[in-house]
Design a protein that fits this description.
Length: 95
């Protein structure tokens, strides 16, 4: 059985790339419109996750670096707000 090769014209190739670009734009629009479900972390969980002491987290709270919920006997942090805090302090590579 002989294999057949299909040759595409430049218009067909441009059409394929255009379709791919439209799909990419659609995916980007969807990802921007979806809000992640809200997750909350305790002092211990966030301390372990970021490898920071609870005292450092208390200092960040006192300086207003990020918000938190102060429930009786428990402090909770919004995972979304912590992610925003990390993004604000992100430094790109030098190269």
């Amino acid at each position: 059985m002989a294999d057949k090769m299909q040759v595409l014209t430049s218009d067909e190739v441009c059409g394929i790339f255009s379709a791919i670009e439209n799909v990419r734009k659609g995916i980007k629009a969807l990802s921007e419109s979806i809000t992640p479900s809200q997750r909350y972390l305790t002092d211990s969980e966030l301390s372990k996750e970021l490898n920071l002491s609870k005292r450092t987290l208390a200092n960040y709270r006192a300086k207003g670096e990020f918000g938190y919920y102060n429930l009786p006997g428990k402090i909770l942090y919004s995972e979304c707000e912590i992610e925003q805090f990390l993004q604000r302090h992100y430094l790109p590579p030098f190269r």
